[in-house]
Design a protein that fits this description.
CATH topology: Rossmann fold
Number of helices: 10
Number of strands: 13
Shape: globular
Oligomer: single chain
Helix content: 25-40%
Number of domains: 1
Order of helices and strands: HEHHEHEHEEEHEHEEEEHHEEH
Mean pLDDT: 94
CATH superfamily: Peptidase S8/S53 domain
Length: 320
């Protein structure tokens, strides 16, 4: 028998049983499972779904001529700014083996011909920070430069979150000290969300770098339509999200935190009761409102993203 999430997702894709104003979710099954489409309906009159916030995409470059980036159904251009921390210029085009950065922002941010990402009214800052998303720790120098660029320009471009997309495809049980660590610590202190995908190799004794680092949230996955943990998982995981790859899981949660940040601001919720900075507080909210998922393979229990539950929690306890 098909999972109810799969069946509902198909209805959403077909435009049946959907009240998301005719929108086509970028990933219908995953969005329904994480209750993104429920949020679009329930908070249509309260939230702007990313307007006024910029998500930085640190990956291996982007083809900015793609219609998803060169055009937008929203009021503003989708790409607010671009930068290349490898070459030190503002042209993030793919070079070498790069390919991933052209699509990594779609689940979080797309708003083109009716297809919507989680925070579809946001803007993106496209940062080419290495040659290929399948990286090595030797890429830490240019990644650190990309993170420093965000630190230097986050106020100017209203950057509130970073999708740190690379994976080194290794099984790290402990952090690996590199140049990015000081940048991640500074970004956390600024309250800017930074998360990275855990990896896609079914590892159970560790996860990829840079997700394994302190001050970087590690995002894993459950199978879309099922609360069944898959791909890389370890005690370092902070959250699991429905997706077929952890890069997509991370993209979805990066969109979700833009909605949560706006909900905190609109509701007057006192986030300081949840953490020492905005990013840590948002993770705590996502964890406490998420669905428990036990993984028999690793014998660990994780929290699965429930976007509507997190927003309901904030609005119910806000001062406004």
């Amino acid at each position: 028998m098909q999972s109810p999430f799969v069946l509902i997702g198909l209805l959403v894709l077909l435009g049946l049983g959907s009240t998301a104003r005719g929108a086509e979710p970028a990933d219908p099954v995953a969005f329904q499972h994480a209750r993104v489409t429920d949020v679009w309906e329930a908070y249509a009159d309260k939230l702007t779904f990313g307007k006024g916030q910029t998500l930085a995409l640190l990956d291996d470059g982007c083809k900015l001529s793609m219609p998803e980036w060169s055009q937008s159904d929203g009021e503003l251009p989708k790409v607010r700014v671009s930068y290349d921390s490898v070459d030190g210029d503002d042209d993030p085009k793919h070079e070498g083996r790069g390919y991933h950065g052209s699509t990594i922002g779609i689940p979080s941010s797309v708003n083109y011909k009716g297809k919507r990402g989680v925070a579809f009214n946001n803007q993106v800052a496209v940062v080419r920070a290495l040659e290929c998303c399948h990286c090595t720790v030797s890429d830490s120098k240019t990644l650190a430069a990309g993170l420093q660029w965000v630190i230097d320009h986050h106020e100017q471009h209203r950057i509130t979150a970073i999708n740190l997309a690379p994976v080194d495809d290794l099984e790290h049980a402990e952090p690996v000290a590199t140049e990015i660590d000081a940048k991640l610590k500074r970004l956390r202190a600024l309250g800017i969300w930074v998360s990275a995908p855990a990896g896609n190799h079914n590892f159970t004794k560790g996860i990829s770098w840079p997700a394994c680092q302190p001050h970087c949230f590690a995002i894993g996955a459950v199978k879309p339509g099922k609360d069944e943990v898959h791909l890389d998982r370890h005690a370092k995981l902070d959250l699991v999200v429905p997706a077929s790859a952890t890069s997509s899981s991370n993209a979805i949660v990066c969109g979700a935190v833009l909605l949560l940040r706006e909900a905190i601001d609109k509701s007057g919720y006192d986030w300081k009761q949840d953490g020492p900075n905005r990013a840590a507080a948002m993770l705590a909210i996502l964890q406490k409102t998420g669905t428990e998922v036990h993984d028999p393979t690793s014998q660990l229990t994780f929290r699965r993203l429930d976007v509507k539950a997190s927003l309901d929690y904030v609005f119910e306890r806000g001062r406004r």
